[in-house]
Amino acid sequence: MSKPSDLLQGTLDLLLLKILALQPMNGWAISLRLKQISGDVLQVSDGSLYPALHKLEQEGWITAEWKPSENNRRAKFYSLTRLGRRHLEKEAANWGRLSAAISNVVRLEEA
Amino acid sequence: MRPQHWLYTIPLRLRSLFRRHDLEQELNEELQFHLEQKIAQGIAKGLSLEEARYAAMRSMGGLEQRKEETRDAWGIHWLTDFFDDVRYAIRSLRRTPGLTAFVVITLALGIGMTSATFSMVDALIFRPYPVPHPGSVVTLVSTTHDSNFDAFSYREYLDIRSKTNSYAGVIAYADMQPVGFTAEPATTPRIKGGMLVSGNYFQVLGVEPRLGRGFREDEDQEPGRDAVVVLGPDFWNHEFASDPAILGKTVRLDGTEFTVIGVAPDSFPGLLIFGHPDFYVPLAMARVFSTNLQKNFFEDRDDRELNIKARLKPGTTQPQARNELAVLAKNFEREYPKVNRNRGAAVYTQFEARTREDLNWKFGVIFVILGLAVLLVACTNVAGLLLSRARARTREIAVRLAIGAGRFRLIRLLLTESLILASLGGLAGIAIGSGIVEWFQSKQNIIFATELPVAIPFRMDARVLLASLALAALSAILCGLAPALQSSRADLVNGLKSGDVDLPGRKQLWGRNLLVVAQVATSLMLLTASFLMARSFQRSLLDDAGFAKDHLLMTSFDPRLVQYNATQSQQFYKLLAERVRQVPGVQSVALTQNIPLGTDDFDALAFVPDHFQMPRDRENFNSTMDTVDEGYFDTMRIPILRGRAFRASDTSDAPRVAVVNEQFAKHYWPNANAVGQHLHLESSTGELVEIVGVSQTIKTQNASERAVDFVYLPLAQHPVTRLVLMLRSSGDPLQLVQPVKDVVRTLDANLPLLHTMAYEEYYLNEAVRGPGIAIDLVGAMGAVGLLMAVAGLYGLVAYNVSRRTREIGIRMALGAATSDVLRMVMGKGLVLVAFGTVLGLAMGFAVEQLMNSMLFNAGGVDLVAYFIVVPSMFLVTMLAAYVPARRASRIAPTQALRYE
């Protein structure tokens, strides 16, 4: 069972924000999407998803709304706020810089 | 994080706080949805329902833990934890309502006493002047060898104004003084408090009048030219019903007409601590209000009547101002050596000025220290009580520690409990403090027997409330921390096993034993003292004062207020007595310099009996004296035992005479008749007076005094300007007030009547209610002390019981009877109370001796007081020990032993 700490600190937040930036989703759908886009590389347990979502909500980056899901059950749909969009841009840029730097270092070693 | 972000998230936090229940439900629904989807997915993959559910649950990785993590994400767990603690604490406090109430009352008394006394010190020292930028206002004083708070003369004030550079403005004001006031020319003046101030007074202080204007500089330049007056806010309100049309009207002050030009704002009751001047007049009008005709206020450099305050210029420091003024004082000393020899000057801040001007603050500080001591003792006792409670909970705490509660978390829980106790105690304490302050306010007329506008400045304002809350927080920590730390440090294994962890060693209990003994002793002493005071006071009231107090009207006159000279004054009194005698309902009339049992001390008379060889080291003897007219003994119903009273024929041309009281006669002529003897006044070569009568000894200064020597001299031979008129009436003395006023108005419409009241009422105020306050105070302190002693003893015995629960169980299992257990547990308390009682008795005797020598005429020991106080004290304290002891005796052996 993988824990959030298996992911790089803050990475889960970034992933969630990115996924929600595309469209509002409920928790279940997010977990499916996570598996779908990252395959088996990033294993996020279903359990750690909700604390992370609630934390983002408390920060004001995402907001939630109860709506009927595809099978007409009531489900909590999360969507990105303006604040969250700005945060995502910043974090994505940070991530880009960081990963670029790291890949540079890694490539240097290989050379 | 940026502040804007905080702003944004605070509403979210609040929402989670207040919608916690909804959130909880939503979280459940959300997770449920997820699980159902997962299960559906599993079934679709071909798993059975059971397998699918199991897989779903596993993928969550501990549903409850996830929920807990999510709750943490709401960011409010510290607050909800606190609420949980509060709820838990309240529940556990409610389980022992008696103990809780007791602790709250104990703390409330400590906090209440401290906050009440703090309100006194605040009013006497710290409360800033009610003006803008009070910090820059300094006080200038003249200093001599004996005084570091002397006043300045008018000339000196003018010099200071013109020859200093440190100040943005320098103001001067005289002490508040009695002024005869009337708004209508035809009515008799009443006494009000007026204050002479310099023309720049309001402007320098930055006080904007609420109506009209303050004085202009030019209104304070020509002596006697500008008769203008600014009214105080209360005076305007009471006397003129806040009439805005008052501006431009005239009022009569000490016989001179003044034009009202303004009204001071409500925010400015004046610079004085106690007095709130009714009105302000310019210094230039000083002559109208002068009672000293020998001095010239505007010219004499030694007529020092002015207080000076100044506003420092921005950038100037107090030391700079002080140096500058010191140089100026040196110059004064050089230029006017006759009146300024050894005279310096100083500049004080508000704090320095308040602590030098009036020494009442010292009592305030002593009271605050007393209050804090009471609070400290209360906290110690409460800590003791909580400790005994905490011991009873050792097992519960050990269980909590064992299942993983953090030590910090546990301390927090226990501190929350004491915080709740202290908050309740703080609230009740504020109520008690307000009660004390209000009680003082209600005694205002007794404490200040004056017609001037003075008020007790103590009040529970925001500053005092803040201090009280801080005290409550402090006491929460004081009385909660020790028990919290100790119980959380408990040895887990032993705690779980037996609930009988031995925390403090025997030595630590010594302090608490001593404290209980001290409390029992002090409260016994105080209670005895107040009881003794009350009893001997009661007794002395029953004693005859020696004269008749009923059916007497008193009113005083000071003709200096309207600038009479000595001859005019005598003429006035002569006519007054003659005409008042004609008023229907007046039986007799007397004039006297002073009244018995009043506030003012009688003068002392120095004399040498004729043909008496004084001891070499003494020039003369002393006696108290009064100057009275021929109607005095008759009006006051003081019997003349031998000889005669004064007669109208004892004029200034007639032979000099005196009347002495019986005590005096017995003192100097124990074996002879005093009538016919002679006295030299002042010294053996002084004026010779003949004793013509011996009067019965009366009480003169206070109701509980011993007999003192007393000499009466006839008014006609020893004129006095300030006199009291006493009228004996056939009916209600107050019926005579208007007729007397009418008589005075025909003599001089500008002369006010001072202190007009029924003598009996005055006597009750001065001689009965005043000492009553002291007796109440000492009694209340004794009661508080007793309560503290009870709390301390109860806590101690309860603690011992909780320590020895197992031992008691074993003893009872082995056959000890209830009475044996009671005796064993109470024995120690009994010893402590006995020690305290003996000590308290000793102190009580000492205090009684002291009181007998100083105040009361009751000789010997008042056994009744001890017979009442000591047993009741003993009973109450033993009850405090009995309650927990009884609980111990009821311990079921099986239960006590089950702790094993």
What is the topology, as strand order, of the major beta sheet of chain A?
Answer: 1-3-2
CATH architecture type of chain A: Orthogonal Bundle
Morphology call of chain B: globular
User: Are there runs of chain B of 5+ residues with pLDDT below 50, and where?
Assistant: 499-507
Name the shape of chain A in a single word.
globular
Predict the CATH topology of chain A: Arc Repressor Mutant, subunit A
Main sheet: strands, sense, barrel of chain A: 3 strands, antiparallel
Q: Average the pLDDT over all residues of chain A and give the rounded result.
A: 80
Distance between the amino and carboxyl termini of chain B: 55 Å
Order of helices and strands of chain A: HEHHEEH
Largest beta sheet of chain B, briefly? 6 strands, mixed, barrel
Number of strands of chain A: 3
Binned, the helix content of chain A reads 55-70%
Radius of gyration of chain B: 38 Å
Number of helices of chain A: 4
How many DSSP H or I helices of chain B?
29
Instruction: Determine Rg of chain A (CA atoms, Å).
Output: 15 Å
Question: What does this protein structure show overall?
Answer:
The complex is a heterodimer of chains A (111) and B (900). Chain A is α+β, with helices and mostly antiparallel strands. Chain A has a single domain (4-110), classed as Arc Repressor Mutant, subunit A (Orthogonal Bundle), CATH 1.10.10. In chain A, 60% of the residues lie in helices and 14% in strands. Chain A has helices spanning 11-22, 27-38, 46-59, 82-110, and strands spanning 25-26, 62-68, 74-80. Chain A has a three-stranded antiparallel beta sheet. In chain A, a hairpin with a 5-residue loop joins β2 and β3. The longest helix of chain A has 29 residues, at 82-110. Chain A is globular, with a radius of gyration of 15 Å. Mean pLDDT of chain A is 80; it is low at 1-6. In chain B, α2 (20-44) crosses α3. In chain B, β4 (177-182) and β5 (190-197) form a beta hairpin. Chain B contains 29 helices and 23 strands. Chain B starts with a helix and ends with a helix. In chain B, the strands form four sheets. A six-stranded mixed β-barrel of chain B has the order 4-5-10-7-9-8. Classes of the chains: A alpha+beta (111), B alpha+beta (900). Chains A and B meet through α2, α3 and β3 of A and α1, α2 and α4 of B.
